[in-house]
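hey
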């Protein structure tokens, strides 16, 4: 499908009554979710990569208190973290997108990956299987994934990651997957500040960002750098509620994290020869060309870890331990 046609369809749908349900049905029949198993497999692999980065940085998932920004339509990351033995997974979304069929499908499909979960987290598979059996037996059409996981997963939607209401210094990790590219820059900066507040000293913030033109997924005639030819004013026509793209470059996501006070422990951003060649075919708008080098412009994906610095030690003073979650967070 031509990217302009898709953009206009999405823009019109964004003004329709019951637009979320209409968009979901369109995605299931004609869009990304037509191949739900394939889409799901990609998310499991993304989770495996994240877990590896966290472990390398000294924060394994088993026993961790985690916070996910952007649950989406089905809870792959929360389910996988639960199976891996996380102590708590709070997952939030601005909209209550979670769907019965996709959530049950996610639970059933993840059963094929129990050995992967155990291996990724270096834990015995018996415990993973026990948690999985409990999940599958308890999950019902009410989508109470908290009850189905013994209270480990806390799904909150609508909820705002800029103002979580969670206790300060109560989390080990905040993470997102393919979310930040769809969030305005000012909101990202506010999320980073809130993440720093709710993370314990030494806690980690992990984000995996796909900062290429998402229209290129549907229209093979354009590249992932295609949208760099447009000014903000011209690009506004193609922005819509279902596919908002902030067009931030990888370097900007990291800079905002350092500005928020995080130490960068991982940054996978690197230009590729293919993207540099594609950039040569794009008449880059001065809005971008004047601010970034070609090697910065052409990066379309990044994983990065920010670490909250520990406070300076005071001589003879033992710092108070960080707050942990109260027994009931639903009123927070």
């Amino acid at each position: 499908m031509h990217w302009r046609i898709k953009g206009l369809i999405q823009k019109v749908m964004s003004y329709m009554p019951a637009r979320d349900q209409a968009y979901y049905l369109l995605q299931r029949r004609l869009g990304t979710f037509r191949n739900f198993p394939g889409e799901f497999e990609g998310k499991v692999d993304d989770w495996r990569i994240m877990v590896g980065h966290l472990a390398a940085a000294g924060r394994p998932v088993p026993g961790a208190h985690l916070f996910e920004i952007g649950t989406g339509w089905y809870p792959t990351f929360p389910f996988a973290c639960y199976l891996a033995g996380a102590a708590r997974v709070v997952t939030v979304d601005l909209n209550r997108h979670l769907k019965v069929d996709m959530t049950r499908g996610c639970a059933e499909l993840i059963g094929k990956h129990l050995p992967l979960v155990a291996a990724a987290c270096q834990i015995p598979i018996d415990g993973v299987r026990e948690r999985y059996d409990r999940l599958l037996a308890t999950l019902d059409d009410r989508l109470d994934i908290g009850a189905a996981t013994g209270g480990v997963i806390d799904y909150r939607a609508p909820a705002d990651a800029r103002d979580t209401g969670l206790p300060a210094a109560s989390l080990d990790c905040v993470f997102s997957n393919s979310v930040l590219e769809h969030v305005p820059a000012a909101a990202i900066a506010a999320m980073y500040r809130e993440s720093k507040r709710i993370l314990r000293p030494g806690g980690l913030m992990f984000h995996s960002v796909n900062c290429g033109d998402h229209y290129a997924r549907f229209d093979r005639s354009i590249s992932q750098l295609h949208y760099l030819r447009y000014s903000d004013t011209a690009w506004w026509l193609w922005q819509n509620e279902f596919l908002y793209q902030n067009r931030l470059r990888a370097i900007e996501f990291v800079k905002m994290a350092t500005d928020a006070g995080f130490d960068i422990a991982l940054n996978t951003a690197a230009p590729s020869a293919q993207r540099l060649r594609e950039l040569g075919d794009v008449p880059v708008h001065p809005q971008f060309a004047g601010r970034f080098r070609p090697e910065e412009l052409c990066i379309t994906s990044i994983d990065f870890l920010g670490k909250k610095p520990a406070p300076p030690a005071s001589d003879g003073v033992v710092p108070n331990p960080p707050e942990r979650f109260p027994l009931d967070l639903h009123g927070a």
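The chain has 14 helices and seven strands. The first strand starts at residue 65 and ends at 69.
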